[in-house]
Amino acid sequence: MKRAKWRPDFIVAALAVMIGLLTMIVYIYQARVMSRQLHASVWPYLEVVFSQGEAGLAIYVINKGVGPAMVRQNEILVDGVRWTEDTIDSLLVSMVGRPINRTFTTVQGSVVMAGEKIPFLLVPTPADAVALDSAFRHHRLEMRLCYCSIYDDCWRTDHGRVQPCDDCQ
User: Is the pLDDT higher at 38 or at 1?
Assistant: First the structure.
């Protein structure tokens, strides 16, 4: 008796294997999409905002993203020269020529929650605010932050743009 090349049990087994492989591919794709959604659901977006008005002069760090931002580095650049938070008073004296009345909040090492606005530097005295604003007009001032999400996805602010980076080292 001649045997059929495609036996029914072989066809059923081959279909079961194909269905299993397709199911595995769909699950892998779905897991990848869910992982991206999870990362996007806690994506922080820090912005540095300079403000001057009747209340004085202020520099704020605002998280416009949807998740917390862990600030790992903060640099202040004035005309390309790097300053740190530790030397903020020396920087202000070098710009204005005298000590000024100011309130300062450390940003480096802090966690900025979604929607939170941290006053990095507040100068409430009108005379000091005018003097500092005048100094800002004669110098190029930039604040660079490096921050990460809770999943250790990191970004760096540079010239007002936010760019992903590997880490904040």
Answer: 38
